[in-house]
Write a structure and sequence with these properties.
two-stranded parallel sheet; 65% helix; globular; 2 strands; mainly alpha
Length: 131
């Protein structure tokens, strides 16, 4: 499996993690792919295919080359946060992917914290204040 397919498979799996797929999350995958200089037409086609497939994200994450692990993890985090919501299902999924990639837990926590700190609009499930 090449990098493009790993990228699309894992980011689409991230979109599906909370069972609430938003267009903003899909658009983020394409935007990130563009930034990575991937063929956006191939990415868009792969997204449509992967939406209906149930690949083992953890098994695929274990096959990612070491030089691509951090890029993939950061992309998954950005996709999960694209809708300005961080749900428990997403955190659990991202944690599994981070572990399967063999990345340190601290890097995972810091990456999420950094994005959330820079975007105060992000709502974190379980962290809402009731008035």
């Amino acid at each position: 499996m090449d990098f493009l397919e790993q990228f699309v498979t894992l980011t689409v799996a991230t979109v599906k993690a909370d069972r609430d797929m938003s267009q903003k999350e899909i658009d983020t995958i394409v935007l990130l792919a563009e930034g990575l200089k991937l063929d956006t037409e191939a990415v868009a086609k792969a997204i449509k295919t992967k939406m209906y497939q149930h690949d083992s994200a953890e098994a695929i994450a274990r096959t990612v080359a070491s030089e691509n692990k951090l890029v993939i993890m950061q992309a998954c985090i950005l996709v999960a946060l694209a809708d300005n919501k961080l749900k428990m299902q997403e955190v659990e999924f991202l944690n599994k992917i981070n572990s399967a990639l063999g990345l340190p837990q601290s890097a995972f926590v810091l990456a999420i914290a950094s994005v959330c700190q820079n975007n105060p609009q992000i709502q974190i499930e379980g962290n809402e204040t009731k008035s």
